[in-house]
Amino acid sequence: MTPKEYESLNKQVSPNTKSWRTVPLAWLFGGIICCIGQGLGDLYRYLGLEEETSCACISVSLIFLAALLTGLGKYDNLAKYGGAGCLVPITGFSNAVASPALEFKSEGFILGLGAKMFVIAGPVIVYGTLASVVYGFIIWIFHLY
Q: Which residue of 61, 64, 98, 131 is surrounded by the most CB atoms within 10 Å?
């Protein structure tokens, strides 16, 4: 099969994206996640946490909630409708770590859960760290503080 034939076949069987529907839903779901984060931050500051500590608690809380919803099988339903609005924030990263861990848990803690947990998130961590090192090195060279 030639590349052109494959592309033609792929176009025939792939559904068209309904941007008029998916974009507003992604915006809505992403906004709801942000509102939940803002509400948690307001709650944590009301309870007496400092600004920096409350920000860390927001991240931990959103990661925990997304992992919990992934474990309960509910996050995939949210992502089905919310699309990138659910997958782009920190909750999507949590889902990307928890999903493979749950999928391969039957293979054991080391070869299943431990080895497969970062299948999706691993490259993001590696290349994100590499990009930050390169960026830091460039700033250090040019003294652009």
A: 98
